[in-house]
Design a protein that fits this description.
Elements: E1 4-13, E2 16-26, E3 31-35, H1 42-49, E4 57-62, E5 65-66, H2 72-77, E6 80-83, H3 95-101, H4 111-116, H5 119-138, H6 154-167, E7 172-176, H7 184-199, E8 203-207, H8 211-217, E9 220-225, E10 228-233, H9 235-239, H10 242-249
Helix pairs in contact: 3-5, 3-6, 5-6
Bound molecules: adenosine-5'-triphosphate.
The site of adenosine-5'-triphosphate has 10 residues, from helix 1.
């Protein structure tokens, strides 16, 4: 189990700070919320954690490891996974193939074996499919396994994205607006899955616009506005904090 810890991270674009001295901890077994109005810097924080962007200053710790300078593949190997705000699936491939592609990090058999079709490859493929089916079952999607991912509803596509992230067996999971565009019923059915994942000891950082959803799911929340943390604490504390209300109303 590994906590995610941001220590006073900063990132500027063209001299303007987008993330300005943010410190937070997402402990194992918990769903920690990161909320804030449009342009607050939430996505920039996710991009910094996943190595897509580099911090101007500060430290990013995953467990005891300093990951501040780590490139995206190193972070992935350390067990940092994410979902994206915009769904990124292989639309023509089946649901099953999409989930299997999430196991990529664990594949042992190399390219050559793949090309010449060694039995080891077929065995590994079958093993991965079996593991994919475990995830499909958890998400209630076994009967859709052979459907092209691109033909499914938005809610289902979001689930596939989640499964791909979970296929990496993450220690730290970043959920970037995972229920955006979903109705309440769809969102709350995913909430149960998120709780189950956290219960396995995963550190989840949930970035969300939907306040009600975050409030119902997180014990601890951080609120970002204009790149700075303006509040943190339990849902009740944060929801009643005048600084938070002002930030949301003020746009
Ligand atoms: N690559 C970039 N170049 C220049 N400015 C950027 C870049 N990425 C983000 N910004 C700026 O950084 C600030 C924070 O943006 P960010 O997308 O992180 O906010 P957000 O909280 O995720 O917003 P939203 O909820 O709308 O997705 C914004 O002012 C944005 O214009």
């Amino acid at each position: 189990m590994k906590a995610l810890r941001l220590e006073n991270i900063q990132r500027s674009f063209g001299g303007l700070p987008a993330v300005d001295g943010v410190s937070l901890t997402a402990p194992p077994g918990r769903i920690t919320g990161l909320i804030g109005p449009n342009g607050a810097g939430k996505t920039t924080v996710v991009n910094l954690i996943t190595g897509l962007l580099k911090v101007t200053s500060g430290r990013i710790m995953v467990g005891e490891d300093d990951m501040t300078e780590a490139e995206a593949p190193v972070l992935a190997r350390a067990g940092v996974a994410r979902t994206f705000q915009n769904i990124r699936l292989i639309g023509d491939a089946t649901v099953l193939e999409n989930v299997v592609s999430g196991f990529h990090r664990h594949e042992k058999v190399g390219m050559v074996a793949n090309l010449i079709g060694l039995p080891a490859m077929f065995r590994e493929r079958r093993e991965l499919e079996e593991r994919a089916y475990v995830l499909l079952e958890r998400f209630g999607m076994t009967d859709l396994a052979r459907h092209p991912a691109g033909s499914l509803s938005y809610g289902h596509q979001r689930r596939i994205e989640m499964m791909r992230a979970l296929a990496m067996d993450p220690k730290v999971l970043l959920l970037d607006e995972p229920v955006a565009g979903m109705n309440d019923a769809e969102a709350y059915s995913l909430a149960d899955i998120f709780r189950g994942v956290a219960d396995q000891g995963v550190s989840i950082l949930l970035i969300e616009h939907n306040m009600r959803f975050v409030m119902s799911l997180c014990e601890h929340l951080y609120v970002l506005a204009s790149g700075r943390l303006i509040s943190e604490g339990g849902p009740d504390h944060v929801a009643n904090d005048p600084k938070v209300i002002q930030a949301y109303l003020g746009g």
